[in-house]
């Protein structure tokens, strides 16, 4: 038994020496990371953004907004209207939206986005994509995901979409397929 005590005492002294070299701070084992809790929760929120002349450019509605310490926000059941697009607003709905930390003008809609807008000639269209970035200042819509646009006289599909407001431009970025209906 005395043969076991000496090695255990050496190991204990070595451990104490290591702790004293570390400034006496005990070694901490990290617990499993718990999901971050929001600092604020807002229910039934309505967001509006105005330009320098006082004209509303953007309107958003969320069933719920979770606002975090890093200034990011997560929204549920989000509806967006980009109002500055010529002819009529572009609208989009999504089960989720996300505003990155410190970002004041860009939102990402997630989880299956559906919306409506107009072709440059004024014809109404509907679109679907998995995610969509909305820039409330420039009134731009962007995605790198697959997207489908449908209207009475045409159907378009591609990967990536860029919509700009003045003048109205709709650009499918890759793997573009366009079909026109004949009258």
Write a compact overview of the structure shown.
The chain contains one helix and nine strands; from the N terminus they run H-E-E-E-E-E-E-E-E-E. With 183 residues, the chain is mainly beta.
What does this structure look like?
- The chain has 183 residues and is mainly beta.
- It is 11% helix and 56% strand.
- It has one helix at residues 2-21, and strands at residues 40-50, 56-67, 73-82, 90-99, 106-118, 124-135, 140-151, 154-164, 169-180.
- The chain has a nine-stranded antiparallel beta sheet, with no helix packed on it.
- Strand 4 and strand 5 (106-118) form a beta hairpin.
- The N and C termini lie far apart (99 Å).
Sequence-ordered SSE layout with sheet pairings:
Blueprint: H1 2-21, E1 40-50, E2 56-67, E3 73-82, E4 90-99, E5 106-118, E6 124-135, E7 140-151, E8 154-164, E9 169-180
Antiparallel strand pairs: 1-2, 2-3, 3-4, 4-5, 5-6, 6-7, 7-8, 8-9
Tell me the helix content: 10-25%
The average pLDDT score comes to: 81
Residue stretches low in confidence (pLDDT < 50, at least 5 long) are 1-34
Morphology call: globular
* Assembly state: single chain
Largest sheet: 9 strands, antiparallel
Question: Helix and strand string, N-terminal first?
Answer: HEEEEEEEEE
Count of runs of 4 or more consecutive helical residues: 1
Radius of gyration: 27 Å
Cα end-to-end separation = 99 Å
